[in-house]
Amino acid sequence: MKTIEEVQQDILEEFSLYEDWMDKYAYLIELGNSVEPISAVEKNDQNLIKGCQSRVWLVAEKKEGHIYFRGESDAVIVKGLVALLLRVFSGRTPGEILHSQVHFIDDLGLTQHLSPTRSNGLLAMMKQIRLYAVAYDRLDN
Amino acid sequence: MEYDVNKIRSYFPVLKQQVYGKPLVYFDNAASTQKPVQVLLKTGRLYTEFYGNIHRAAHYMADKTTDAFESVRDQVQQFIGAGSREEIIFTKGTTESANLVAASFGEQFISPGSEIIVSEMEHHSNMVPWQLNALKRGAKIVKLPMSRNGELQTSLLSELITSKTRLLAVTHVSNVLGTINPLAQIIDAAHRKNVPVFVDGAQAVQHIPVNVKALDADFYAFSAHKMYGPNGVGVLYGKRKWLEQMPPYQGGGEMISEVTFEKTTFSEIPFKFEAGTPNITGVIALGPAIALLQETGMEHIAAWEHQLLDYCTHQLKELEGLVIYGEASQKSGVISFNIDGIHPFDLGTMLDKTGIAVRTGHHCADPLMSYFNIPGTVRVSFGIYNTTEEIDRFIEALKRVVKMLK
Ligand SMILES: Cc1ncc(COP(=O)(O)O)c(C=O)c1O
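^ thats the input. predicted complex w/ pyridoxal-5'-phosphate below
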């Protein structure tokens, strides 16, 4: 399995194929549409990450020391961002997640989605991923 | 008279901006408007020519600054047709104006059991101050409900206004639906039962002619930054009879006439409500913004923007699955909409990439979103510099992004 850093590099390379912003977003929408939907039951308040403009759900499961994430959003662009985060973080150990540096969103120029006041849930989702890692890490030790 | 939109556009250098390599189309005027050179130059000139603190020192710089500051008070008085200059108070914005009245009027007139009527279409800034105040004083908020088309159910007023009603708070123009409320009628209904009316004019003064005296409004609030003026300045108009009975809002310099350690006597209005050094530059730079509106003529602006509204509404209605929220018979240049199966956030984000700035979200009006049972809308709102060509570009871009998102 590739490292978190390697996956980020892959993503950057894929997006670099598109010069126009519309094309970058078209790709993001495509990714969003390919996200495996989570079940209606899992779209509960517990899995809901409070974002202002769009709703994001994140489900985590731990199997054999690795955390598997699934997620969805009601906005397709956010769903595309969710897809990227899942690709980077799902299947990792808590240690890998906690020691990672996430830079690909900045590098892609999608940082508008990260500003705390835009609060579309992406920043909150990254926080939640880390919180799961911390929690599972504690359970282990 | 011809409406010379090109001349107006030439005053706004920012409109020549490109975003994401596309010419900017700025359709988020309800959130804040762009600033004309007249306002920018005034700000610069103030600091380079005669800046000083106001109302205090006896020197040339302070005198010149005070004159400039106070002349804007005259300008505002004239712009909204207030009876006297003392009835014009400078604040930070509409929000602060509402909080001032809630706190100060509240202290004097609102007590346990009092009722405050607030309309269902209010921006949070004309709702939360009243809620906080009601909570503090054991008063009750009574809702003036809205109908599906975005008009207030004013026929209910005669029932809603009781002997316990102390104030009615209502917006002149809705920032989400564009509805122009029948203010004269609402105020008349309230006054018949001796209830004063606080009007949120944040979305009105820059779009339609406003005369507070003709309307007989008791309080009228608005923000400079939404009327082509600078940030951080607002106005509260209040009838003298109310302002004189209200205690000061904040304590400090400027607002006192005599202070001993035991007791302070306060200045006359408006200074009683202007504690501390105000936003001197901001107030002075509001002057040329008002002048621009007056030179252009509020009647002409209203007619131009109404034309944009009709032109855009007509084209939007052609689009499949598009729902417009707010179809009042009297509307200003604001259109809120959704497209079936597409999240407003996605639409807004994609439109942005085509150079078109719109607003998405709940527009600080959660109760209104609950009414329509939606998470938010896409909102386009026009200003004096917008054109039908820009609307064409917007519609074309909208069609393109809808195709991508569906
Ligand atoms: C109707 C209405 N009222 C009040 C406000 C608040 O204005 P400000 O933030 O300038 O105080 C706004 C601005 O968003 C508004 O649209």
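The pocket of pyridoxal-5'-phosphate is lined by residues B 30, 93-95, 123, 125-126, 171, 175, 200, 202-203, 223, 225, 364 (CB under 6 Å).
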